[in-house]
Amino acid sequence: MSSNNVSPSHLFPITNFKSGFTTCPALKINGVTNVPFSDKTLGIHKNTGSLSHHIVTPPPPVQALPNEPSPQLAWEAKYPKGSISPKTELPGGMGFYMSGPSDFAKMLDGGATETLFSYRVMFERDWDWVKGGKLPGAYGGVGDLAYRCSGGRKDDRCKCFNFRLMWRAGGKGEIYAYVPLNETNDAALLSHPLSKRNNDFSGISVGRGAFTFRKGVWTTVAERVKLNTHNKANGEIQLWIDGECVLHITGLILREEEASHIKGLHFQTFFGGKTPEWASTKDQKAWFADVSGAIL
To answer: What's the domain of life for this entry (predicted)?
Structure first.
């Protein structure tokens, strides 16, 4: 990786990878293909209801980091006042699944066991965090069951995993993990001193407050998933924020059969929870850009 790409390389905090893609035009790395920022190219499917993800020119950040080019194009997520979960009467945010460019998606389907997905997010400058909300993260599993690993579901959890992020009150961040339900995974995820179980939705908040999102600036999120080998608890999840590793959990069982594999990014964001106290207090916007991925 070129040392000249200081901040853009936060999208790729690991240098040892087989191939990758990025929609960040400023990023030039050997083995990483620059691709158009489009639904077709990125393999977007299963868009949630009427929610949109229009490409816009985002506003300038309130603070630009040294040597960091601000994205010129971004998906705009809108969160109307009172909006909560996508399945409530007034949904907000956006939601879809992303498998990446066709060659990349074929490598995932072919059984790639370790991946990195990254993107940049900016919340508007007067953003109200309320109690929290979801942000994109990696997902996978066996066939269509991979799409069901969220929303508190407990059925077939041995056949899926989902590592979306969350913001919480004050911008505190975490990984909101859905993994196969077993004592090994519970022990590994809850070993982090900032982790806790969410009994209402059967997900685990991993490292709540290990990092903090800021308003009006671009934050680079990079998430690595390593699948376990058969009958071994050697799976991993690792998270970098602006190039700094803030979470690294090992000893996981992310699959119980080889048919379960990494599918891509669950690109979902909304306020919630699903009860009124989670709702956005006003019309708000956030922007997502520089979507990238790599097979490690």
So the answer is: Eukaryota
Would the pLDDT of 7 be above 70? no
Distance of CA 38 to the CA centre of its chain: 18
As a whole number of angstroms, the distance between CA 38 and CA 23 comes to: 9
Helix (H/G/I), strand (E/B), else coil: 240: strand
3-class state of residue 165 by DSSP: strand
Q: How confident is the model at residue 204 (pLDDT cuts 50, 70, 90)?
A: very high
Residue 5 has pLDDT above 50, yes or no: no
Say which residues have a Cβ less than 8 Å from residue 279's Cβ, sequence separation at least 6.
Answer: 81, 82, 83, 84, 130, 271, 272
Q: What residue ranges define each of the domains in the chain, with the CATH number in brackets? A: 44-295 (2.60.120.200)
Neighbouring C-beta atoms of residue 17, cutoff 10 Å: 18
* Buried b / exposed e along 124-148 (16+ C-beta atoms within 10 A): beebebbebbbbbbbbbbbeebbbb
Q: Are 163 and 177 in contact (CB under 8 A)?
A: yes
Q: What is the pTM of this model?
A: 0.95
